[in-house]
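Duplicate of earlier report; Tetraacyldisaccharide 4'-kinase input re-posted below.
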Amino acid sequence: MHSFLEEFYMKIWQKTSLITWLLSPLSLLFWLISQVRKRLYSWHILQSYRSPVPVLVVGNISVGGNGKTPVVVWLVEQLQARGVKVGVVSRGYGGKIKTFPQLVTHESSAEMVGDEPVLIVQRTNAPLAISPNRQQSIELLLSQFELDIIITDDGLQHYALQRDMEWVVVDGVRRFGNSFVLPAGGLRELPSRLKSVDAVICNGGEPKPNEHLMTLEPSDAINLLTNERKPLSEFIQPCVAIAGIGHPPRFFTMLEKLGLPLTHTQGFADHQDFDKTQLLELADSQTPLLMTEKDAVKCKEFAPTNWWYVPVSAKFSENSTACLLDPILQKLGK
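Output:
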């Protein structure tokens, strides 16, 4: 979806208006169809797949970037540090490849397999497979790796896959907008769905009772061309920032709070395919161009010396970390 359209819809979905009520009959239809489909799976009329190893879904109930990928990276790293062998499956959204399932490696092209899978592999080294059919991905991983658990990046509404645990990531600032499901609102399922999941993670903002607050902490900026690391505090000259993520303002606000002098910010559609020419027009060779790590995996091949990316890492309190990890480790007997 074009970034302008995304922005337009996001604004409409944040509040109740005449458009909301005009679209509400379609939202009712969407909700009814999704409920019937869910019931057909729970009654075993539609067939679902049970993995031989436990499956944990990290998903959301709303459209747009809520911060799932940092949660997946954090979870994989935490489990790996405790001796758990973790595999990841992803839809590979935004990738151009047509043959599934596919293993994603450090050498994989983000253009072909999607930006998020490449980012997760580069950060965690975990075995990762992509396919719109999660069963195919899981079977491919288990045929080549000995794994204790599968983490699925997104797929909360993919009821063809049975799961042992569900985590939902919520944007702590935008929350649920006008609380309507598509197309009158930005929800795939109603907020009441949160009552049935194992954990609700609140990305920024103020967490509600029983939610785990996650903050995204940036590290040094890293040069796309040279891999040089540079503290963000050293960016004192005018900078340009871009973001092709679900909610670009989150990235720009983070940089501004850190005191970076941004002269221009440019949001793009999530999973945007970048063209070198369009980005060169935004910043001359003397002006640092800052981007997210997710954007960087698509731009490294043609980056000049003034392009930098800013990795972020999920952070949780000690109490939340224990609450999130203990049930998984107990299930795995670790």
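The mean pLDDT is 94.

Merging into the original ticket.
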